[in-house]
C-alpha cells in the first residue's frame, strides 16, 4: 500500500491530482483511514502489533503529500516567473491625450488680452428671459430685430418669455445691473440662432465687451479694438475700418472691418488688399444705461460683440464652421491645441 501511494504521489503532475491522492488515502473513506478504523475491531494483541505500522504508513503518506505539494507549488511559481515576465523593452501603448478645442483656446487668448487691458470676465445664463435678451437692450416687442435674430423660444410657463440667448449682449445688462461703474468686462459664451449652413451653426460663440465710465468716447472704442485685434492676430499691420451701422442698443453704431491680404495663397488678416467685417460696436444707448438703473448723464460707455468661431477660423485658417461642432477627433487632432 505504501509503495502504491508513493507511486501515485510521484505521478501527480498538478495540485488537483495530488489532492485526489490525498482523498484516496487519508480522506474520510480513504484506504488508510479505513485501516485506522479497523484497529478498533482487532483484539489487543493484533492491535498493538498493527497500530504502529498503520500510523507509520499514515505519517509517511502525509509527509509524501506535503513534500510533493511544496514541489508542485514552487514549480508553478517558477513557471509563472518564466512566462509572465514583464518586458521592459516593449513599446508603451499610446495613452489617448485630449486637446484644447480651438474655440476654448481662442476664448482663453481673448480673456488674456483683455485682462491686460483691465477687463474682467462676466457671465450670464444661456437660457435668458426676453427682457434681458431684447427689451432692456432697447429692442421692444414689435421691433423687427426680434425676427431678425431667428430666436429659439423656450416652451412652458414662465414669468417672462424665455429664449436661448441670441447674442452675449444681455450680459451687458446683467453686468450694469449688478455693480456700480466704472465697469470693464468681456463676456464670452454660447449663443443660439435658428440658422444652419456652411457659415452658420444654430449654436455658436460670441464675445461681448463693455466699458462704462465717465467721459468715454468712440476714440476709446477704436483704440481698444485696434489694440485687441493687433494682439489677437499677432501683427502690427492690422488695419481697422469703422462703418456707420445700426444696433438698437448702441448709438452711434459702427460695424468694424479688418483689412486682409493674400499670403501663400491664403487670405490673412493684416494689410489692406480687401476688407472683411469682424465685429459690431457702438456707444451704449442712453436708454440701455437707464434701463439698468444708471444715470446716462453721468455714465457713458461703449460695447462691442464679435464671433469667437469666426475669429478662430481667421487666425488658424479653418474653412468650415460646421467642423467646429462635428466632434470629429481627426479634426481635433489636427486643429486642437496641446496642453
Ligand atoms: N449683439 C450684436 C450681434 O449679435 C453685436 C453687438 C454687440 C453690436 C455690442 C454692438 C454692440 O450682432
Automatic annotation (TrEMBL):
InterPro entries: aa-tRNA-synth_II, aa-tRNA-synth_II/BPL/LPL, Phe-tRNA-synth_IIc_asu, Phe-tRNA_ligase_II_N, Phe_tRNA_ligase_alpha1_bac, Phenylalanyl-tRNA_Synthase, tRNA-bd_arm
Catalytic activity: tRNA(Phe) + L-phenylalanine + ATP = L-phenylalanyl-tRNA(Phe) + AMP + diphosphate + H(+)
Chief site of localization: cytoplasm
Cofactor annotation comment: Binds 2 magnesium ions per tetramer.
Phosphoprotein listed as a keyword: no
Similarity field: Belongs to the class-II aminoacyl-tRNA synthetase family. Phe-tRNA synthetase alpha subunit type 1 subfamily.
PANTHER family tied to this protein: PHENYLALANINE--TRNA LIGASE, MITOCHONDRIAL, PHENYLALANYL-TRNA SYNTHETASE
Protein known as: Phenylalanine--tRNA ligase alpha subunit
Gene from which the chain derives: pheS
Amino acid at each position: 500500500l505504501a509503495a502504491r501511494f508513493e507511486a501515485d504521489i510521484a505521478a501527480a503532475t498538478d495540485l488537483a491530482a495530488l489532492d485526489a491522492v490525498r482523498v484516496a488515502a487519508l480522506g474520510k473513506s480513504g484506504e488508510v483511514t479505513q485501516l485506522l478504523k479497523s484497529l478498533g475491531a482487532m483484539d489487543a494483541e493484533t492491535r498493538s502489533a498493527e497500530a504502529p505500522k498503520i500510523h507509520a504508513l499514515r505519517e509517511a503518506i502525509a509527509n509524501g503529500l506535503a513534500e510533493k505539494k511544496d514541489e508542485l507549488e514552487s514549480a508553478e511559481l517558477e513557471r509563472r516567473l518564466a512566462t509572465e515576465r514583464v518586458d521592459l523593452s516593449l513599446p508603451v501603448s499610446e495613452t489617448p491625450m485630449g486637446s484644447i478645442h480651438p474655440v476654448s483656446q481662442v476664448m482663453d487668448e481673448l480673456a488674456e488680452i483683455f485682462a491686460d487691458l483691465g477687463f474682467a470676465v462676466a457671465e450670464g445664463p444661456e437660457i435668458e428671459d426676453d427682457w434681458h435678451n431684447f427689451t432692456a437692450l432697447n429692442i421692444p416687442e414689435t421691433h423687427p430685430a426680434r425676427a431678425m435674430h431667428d430666436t429659439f423660444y423656450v416652451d412652458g410657463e414662465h414669468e417672462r418669455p424665455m429664449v436661448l440667448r441670441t447674442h452675449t449682449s444681455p450680459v451687458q445688462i446683467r453686468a450694469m445691473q449688478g455693480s456700480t461703474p466704472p465697469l470693464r468686462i468681456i463676456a464670452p459664451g454660447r449663443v443660439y440662432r435658428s440658422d444652419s449652413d456652411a457659415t452658420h451653426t444654430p449654436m455658436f460663440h460670441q464675445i461681448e465687451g463693455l466699458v462704462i465710465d465717465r467721459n468715454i468716447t468712440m476714440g476709446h472704442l477704436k483704440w481698444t479694438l485696434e489694440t485687441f485685434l493687433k494682439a489677437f492676430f499677432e501683427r502690427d499691420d492690422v488695419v481697422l475700418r469703422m462703418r456707420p451701422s445700426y444696433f438698437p442698443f448702441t448709438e452711434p453704431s459702427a460695424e468694424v472691418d479688418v483689412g486682409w491680404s493674400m499670403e501663400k495663397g491664403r487670405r490673412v488678416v493684416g494689410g489692406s488688399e480687401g476688407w472683411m467685417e469682424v465685429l459690431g460696436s457702438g456707444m451704449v444707448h442712453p436708454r440701455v444705461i437707464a434701463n439698468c438703473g444708471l444715470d446716462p448723464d453721468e455714465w457713458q460707455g461703449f460695447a462691442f460683440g464679435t464671433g469667437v468661431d469666426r475669429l478662430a477660423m481667421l487666425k488658424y485658417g479653418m474653412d468650415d464652421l460646421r467642423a467646429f461642432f462635428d466632434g470629429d477627433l481627426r479634426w481635433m487632432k489636427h486643429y486642437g491645441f496641446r496642453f
